[in-house]
Structure formats: C-alpha cells, structure tokens
Amino acid sequence: MAMSRMRKHLSLRFVWTLALLTVLGSAIGAKASAEEPTERPVSPNVLFFAVDDTRDWVNCLGGYQGAVHTPNIDRRAKRSMLFTNAHYASSKCVPSPGAVAGASLNETDAPKRGKRLNVLFIAVDDLRPTLGCYGDEIAVTPNMDRLASRGALFRRAYCQQAVCNPSRASLMTGRRPDTIRVWDLKSHFRETLPDVVTLPQCFKHQGYHTRSIGKIYHGVGKPSRDPVSWSVAPQYDEVLTLSLRYAKPKNRNQAIGLHGSATESAEVRDNAYTDGLVCDAAEAALEELKTRHKPFFLAVGFRKPHLPFCAPRRYWDLYNRSKIPAPAPDKHPADAPELAVRSWKELEAYTDIPNDGRLSTEKIRELRHGYYVCVSFTDALVGRLLDQLDRLKLAESTVVILWGDHGYHLGEQGLWTKANNYDLNP
Ligand SMILES: [Ca+2]
C-alpha cells in the first residue's frame, strides 16, 4: 500500500519533462547552429520525452548516490542545460522528493508558491491487510475503511524486506535495503549513506514543518533516531517502558525484560498504552500545527498490532472468538526448504508461549483474536486523527497516507509473525 501510494503522489514526471525538454532542445539547437544556415533560420524539430514516475535517480542530478547507471541521460545533460530546481506543478500533489532533492537544501530558500498540502503520514507496525477494505469479513476497521473509501487503496503493494527496520529505512530513504545496507534491527542507514535525504527531510527542505510522534523509524535503539529528518525533537520514538506495554500489574510482574504474556485484555483507557499516548500527542500536535504559517508533514507511528497483543477490553469485546476462523492452511507447504519455513522466534519470547513451537488450539485462537483486537484498537486511534482533521477543518488541505511496514503470519502455513517471503509477509 505504502510504496505504490508514494510513487503516485511523489512522481517526478513533470520534472523530467522539463529537464529533458531542456536537454534535448538545447542539443538540437546546437546542431542547427553548427550547420550555419544562410538563407533562412532552420526551425529545429522537437523530440519530446515524457518519463513516467521517474525521480532524480540519475547520475547527472546526483541521485541515488551515483549507484544508478544512466549514461545516455547523463551525456545529454552534459551537452545542455539541466534544471536542478524544477518542481511538479500541480497544487493537488505533495511536492515530490526528487524536486526537493534537486532544490536548495536550505530550508529558508524554499520556493514561494501557492498553498501547499499538509501530510499526515501514519505508520502501523506489523499490519497485514486484515482490514474490511481488503475484504476481511471478520475485521472491525470502520475508520481505515472510510479512509480507503475516500482515497486510493493499493491491493498489491509489497515491502522491501519483511521486518521492521529494513522495511522502514528503505521506505523513508527511497533506497533498497541492499543500497543502504540495512538488513537487520541494529544498523542505521546513515552508517552507509550519511548524506541520504529522507522523505521528511525532503519536506523540511521545502519549508515544511516536520514532526514525528511514535514509531516511524525502527522504534528501538540507534535506528530509531534521525534528528535531521525532523523540525523538532520526536516524541515516543523509542519506548521501552514495561508499564506502557502491560496495564495489568500481574503481567508486569511476570515479565522477563519487556516480555510477559502474549496478550492482555484490561479495563483501561486507550492511553494506558503507548499508542493511546501517541494519539493524544498527535491530536494536540494537529491543533498546534494548524496555527503555524507553514505546511506540515506529521508522521504518526502506532506500535500495534505488533506483539504483545495488549489492548483495552472494549476492543476484545468487538469479536466473538469462536467466529474467528482457524488458520488455513496450517501446515508448511509441501517440499518447502527448511530455510523458507524457519520460524521467526519473536513469538516464543513471550512467557505463555511454549518454546517448542507447539501451540494449543485454544492458544492459536487467543492469538488470532488478539491480533484482530489490536488492529481494531489502532483503527480507533486512526479514526480519532481523521476526526481531528475534520474538526480542525484540515481534511481538505491534508494528504493522509497510511501504511504497514510488512505483513504477518498468524499460523497460516504453520508460520507465525514475520521475516519470510510468502505473500502474507511482504
Ligand atoms: Ca514491524
């Protein structure tokens, strides 16, 4: 969902039309001059290239850290004028990152233009398309469904790697995990590409106020932080507080480190958990951002439905556990190699999960119920943000993007959680 939407909104085709027109027009003009016409001026022909969904990933614009091979565009650029500060013209589109990359990197030099749209960029951790808008008949997700009904829904979008940090770092930089050399949970993309311009950085350079609340980068340790992406210090970017993971004292007391029970149902308010606090802060930020004289890029990252499946009881009550179907198929694909069916050990870190991978039918039902519950919990928080946009009369001037960092298994094919390449994961 995420990348396709980005490609749509952040297209640079107009930039390339401008740049290539200039390149080709100038080159043809040079040829006519060399022939020294004596009787009358020769009107040059025009070869007009439009390049769809292309950004600045060519060497002549310094893009992609020189890793892309574009010798023909580069040699044309050398023979003529190259616009490095061209912008997509539609006021209905958010500025494209390529246009930003080609522009001055000084925030104060941002071009004076008509009113630009704000961006509300919502990241949801471990969200597979268990949503009504994707045809799931069990999911109770009215708010994401209404967002989908008002915008574009991407039905065949895939992430770059089915685990948090590589997927997020790739999306935020527009670079493949192999390019930024981020394949694990510990590496920071700036170790390989210190000067890479991230998506929020692009907006910042264009005069946007950029802010991060919740999990946008990895959410734990060094890869959680990228100060230059943001206009102000992020909130809740790294949360390792046991009391915000578990509301029940019993579950906190039994936890080993941050891992206790894999599920929790508690009679508490939304903000007993991190995501409720993130939503509170985001609602307040929208109110404040409305008063600023700058457009904003507000990134809001929710940590559910990531494990543990902890949520206020009212979200558990949205579902009848007996009506949630068992995983199907629940066995590894026949003849699949061992590497393809290796379990990500994430689930086994929880105290009520056996280490041998053998889950009872009841535990499987509880876990599947818990995942749906946490999706609905997140959906309710997304709904609060959409309502806040409406209340503040920002809905018409704000692009809303909602994306999940990768898919998930809930017992299907005998697999749990993430980090494999079956269709449910990436
Ligand atoms: Ca994740």
Written account of the structure:
This protein has 426 residues and is of the alpha/beta class. The chain has 14 helices and eight strands. The longest helix is centred in the C-terminal third of the chain and has 31 residues, at 361-391. The N and C termini lie close together (11 Å). The relative contact order is 0.14.
What does this entry show, briefly?
With 426 residues, the chain is of the alpha/beta class. The protein is built from 14 helices and eight strands. Calcium ion is lined by residues 125-126, 164, 306, 405-406.
What descriptors fit this protein?
426 residues, two-stranded parallel ribbon, globular, 14 helices, alpha/beta, Alkaline Phosphatase, subunit A, binds calcium ion
Write the layout of secondary structure elements.
Blueprint: H1 2-9, H2 13-34, H3 71-78, H4 97-102, E1 118-124, H5 142-150, H6 164-173, H7 177-180, H8 189-192, H9 199-205, E2 209-214, H10 242-245, H11 249-254, E3 263-266, H12 274-290, E4 296-302, E5 309-312, H13 313-316, H14 361-391, E6 398-404, E7 409-410, E8 416-417
Parallel strand pairs: 1-4, 1-6, 2-4, 3-5
Antiparallel strand pairs: 7-8
Helix pairs in contact: 2-3, 5-14, 12-14
The chain binds calcium ion (CA).
Calcium ion binds at residues 125-126, 164, 306, 405-406.
